[in-house]
UniProtKB/TrEMBL annotation, chain A:
GO terms under biological process: glutathione metabolic process; xenobiotic metabolic process
UniProt-listed InterPro entries: Glutathione-S-Trfase_C-like (IPR010987), Glutathione-S-Trfase_C_sf (IPR036282), Glutathione_S-Trfase (IPR040079), Glutathione_S-Trfase_N (IPR004045), GST_alpha (IPR003080), GST_C (IPR004046), GST_superfamily (IPR050213), Thioredoxin-like_sf (IPR036249)
Assigned keywords, A-Z: Transferase
Lineage, opening ranks: Eukaryota, Metazoa, Chordata, Craniata, Vertebrata
Catalysed reactions, as listed in the record: RX + glutathione = an S-substituted glutathione + a halide anion + H(+)
GO cellular component term of the entry, any: extracellular exosome
Organism expressing this protein natively: Capra hircus
CDD domains (alphabetical): GST_C_Alpha (cd03208), GST_N_Alpha (cd03077)
MF term (GO), any: glutathione transferase activity
Pfam families according to UniProt: GST_C, GST_N
Coiled coil: none
Keyword Transferase attached: yes
UniProt name for this protein: Glutathione S-transferase
From TrEMBL, chain B:
Recorded superkingdom: Eukaryota
Enzymatic reactions: RX + glutathione = an S-substituted glutathione + a halide anion + H(+)
Name of the protein described by the UniProt record: Glutathione S-transferase
GST N-terminal domain location: 3-83
Similarity-based family: Belongs to the GST superfamily. Alpha family.
Lineage: Eukaryota, Metazoa, Chordata, Craniata, Vertebrata
Keyword Transferase: yes
Gene Ontology biological process terms, A to Z: glutathione metabolic process; xenobiotic metabolic process
Keyword hit for Transport: no
Gene it is expressed from: LOC102174170
């Protein structure tokens, strides 16, 4: 077995952060090689390391995996965070994909033209309050268990709790009427590996600021 | 075990078509309940049948599954189209996700404002020719086998071949310099279950009619 997984991305959340969270929650130590200049990205491309010329890329168990979901699914399977059978996996996937949909909206917010931003934020808040948080609160209510699926921690809980932190960053009041989600957030945050990841000095990345955004645009050649 | 899977969606390709392809290729008969008016969608929402108030939704094995990938993953696992171990699954996922990225661009093309359409089309052609098709041609070249992963048909082959049909619809010349992909397309198309699905009269949906999409857009407010 090779050494620690090696994450290739720029020094920011982006599409790699959910992978960092999952590895951290699974108690897996990982290394990061930050792409700081467009030339770093070019080098990876020319090396043939990126199947679709894109990052995230994770070197793990002799593979150079790209595509966020491929990486997440592999990590989840390897560390038993993907349920006990195919029906549990279906639920975990359904929940994880819902989280990903909302997460994508929040992820892309910094790229929104300034004149459309307020409307976009309002739309996101509305989705959070009326669509996504109620759906997950309902799951927890339906079985009264500590975790979303199979009474056991899975990737679905980790992805959801990560998202709840971003919802809280957007507007803490959004979580107010969801007691079971607040309970899940607290419970998962208190797991030793997650608690450690939440401390300052961990590999968790801060919210994107103007400087970070400019850097990302420069590296990925986004206008 | 419940009866046939029931697919809830509009009578069009959209986000359900890849599911239809996968079920068909797996030799699984399925029923379809088409959403024709906003009231049909409202009913599903009010029934509590749609976890996130969205379709696709597939009733299968006692579950009401939403989210395209959740549905695809379940079907692939159930019908042994997801590789033999976790490393094969990783490759299958990587390839399937690449297909999905290009597929998403093509799917959204009819929704593109007319002023932006030419630019969008050019971008899609560029990515098809320079990014996606070479990547998959290289995989086949690297091992010389008949299928993308593990020398066995998997969902990756089915998703890719479906995509190749859409690339061909866009511009047949795009496939010209990819002999191994053309061969994969022919090989998979010739499998009995796929061959049947490709015949007229099957549940395969035709290209999206721009007029129909405008109507759907107004009716369903997207």
């Amino acid at each position: 077995m090779a050494g620690k997984p090696k994450l290739h991305y720029f020094n920011g959340r982006g599409r790699m952060e959910c992978i960092r969270w999952l590895l951290a929650a699974a108690g897996v130590e990982f290394e990061e090689k930050f792409i700081e200049q467009p030339e770093d990205l070019d080098k990876l491309k020319n090396d043939g390391s990126l199947m679709f010329q894109q990052v995230p890329m994770v070197e793990i168990d002799g593979m150079k995996l790209v595509q966020t979901r491929a990486i997440l699914n592999y990590v989840a399977t390897k560390y038993n965070l993907y349920g006990k059978d195919m029906k549990e996996r279906a639920l975990i996937d359904m929940y994880s994909e819902g989280v990903a949909d909302l997460g994508e909206m929040i992820l892309l917010l910094p790229l929104c033209p300034p004149d459309q931003k307020d409307a976009k934020i309002a739309q996101i808040k509305q989705s959070i309050t009326n669509r996504y948080l109620p759906a997950f609160e309902k799951v927890l209510k339906s079985h009264g268990q500590d975790y979303l699926v199979g009474n056991k921690l899975s990737k679905a809980d980790i992805h959801l709790v990560e998202l709840l932190y971003y919802v809280e960053e957007l507007d803490p009041s959004l979580l107010a009427s969801f007691p079971l989600l607040k309970g899940l957030k607290a419970r998962v945050s208190n797991l030793p590996a997650v608690k450690k990841f939440l401390q300052p000095g961990s590999q968790r990345k801060p919210p994107m600021d103007e400087k970070n955004l400019e850097e990302a645009k420069r590296i990925f050649r986004i206008k």
